[in-house]
Amino acid sequence: MFQKRQLRFIYLVILIIVIVLIYKSFTGPDHAPPADESEMRVVDVDQTSDEAALKPSPAPVYVVVYYEALCPDSKHFVIRQLKPAFERAPALMEIQFVPYGKATTTTKQDGSLAFECQHGPIECEANTIHACVIEAVHDPKTRLEMVACMIQDNIMPRDAFQRCARENGVEIESIQKCFDSTHSAELLKLHGEATHALRPPVTFIPTITLDGSQANQKSLLKDLFGAVCQVAAGRGPKPDLVLHFLARYLQTEVLDEIRLLPGQLRRGLYWLLN
């Protein structure tokens, strides 16, 4: 399997080089028609705009996921949409998790907090563990891996946490201390306040916001990556995912040549890779 992937990549590199050479042969100085000064200025403007189109957006799209640990729809979204989208373009997204959903919070006479969750006490326990993990794990990729791993099977929340922490190399003791202390309840209360502050209010879980907007929920629940790209494109130049991918494998000189290719060719290469 590895040899096939390696061979496919070699063929892809050869294809890229051939395309670059063909393109340069038709666009080099020997084939360029004579142009006056005004025409040169037009070319310069077009080249500048093309270079600007390759620059990534100044900041990633802020994706907030309001979810429940035992919610089947939340599980489906995290595993089938959120994780694949992040893996395709991690620089394009900043993810914040809010594990609470349609729960309620009450303060007892002694000042302690109590929660009622849509899927029962086990979900409250799982939401609380998620809250502690989200606070403790700072690496975005590892945090997402932990949430995706735990939500896969949260019927026994403590066991799920222990297993997923070992699989992802996450330190267990500090998170366990969080869960066993009143701090975990305070964290869950904060997630509840964030959920209740949403306008319009939550009617479906999961609810997703992109840069603070709840627009097009049905669409982004089915195609999060496409929705994130639309938001990024709407507020500024969209990152060139072809160059982002190839940068891991090719030398800078080759990437500079690829930047000169028309946008359609770059997009064609991207879909070939995916």
3D architecture notes:
With 274 residues, the protein is mainly alpha-helical. The chain has a domain at 61-235: Glutaredoxin (3-Layer(aba) Sandwich). 60% of the residues lie in helices and 9% in strands. It contains 13 helices and 5 strands. The protein has helices spanning 2-27, 37-53, 72-88, 121-136, 140-152, 157-167, 173-180, 183-196, 217-222, 224-235, 241-246, 252-259, 263-273; strands at residues 61-67, 93-99, 104-107, 113-116, 207-210. Strand 3 (104-107) and strand 4 (113-116) form a beta hairpin. Helix 3 (72-88) runs antiparallel to helix 5, helix 4 crosses helix 7 (173-180) and helix 5 (140-152) crosses helix 6. It is globular and about 75 Å long.
CATH topology of one domain: Glutaredoxin
| Helix run count | 13
Radius of gyration: 24 Å
Element string (H = helix, E = strand): HHEHEEEHHHHHEHHHHH
Query: How far is the N terminus from the C terminus?
Result: 17 Å
| Superfamily (CATH H level) name of one domain | Glutaredoxin
Main sheet?
A: 3 strands, mixed
Secondary structure: helix percent = 55-70%
- Briefly, what CATH class of one domain? Alpha Beta
Give start-end ranges of low-pLDDT stretches.
Answer: 30-57, 236-243, 248-252, 270-274
Secondary-structure-derived class: mainly alpha
InterPro entries: Interferon-induced_GILT, Thioredoxin-like_sf
Pfam family, one: GILT
Family: Belongs to the GILT family.
GO molecular function, one term: oxidoreductase activity, acting on a sulfur group of donors, disulfide as acceptor
Quick structural summary:
This protein is mainly α and 274 residues long. It has a domain at 61-235: Glutaredoxin. Helix content is 60%, strand content 9%.
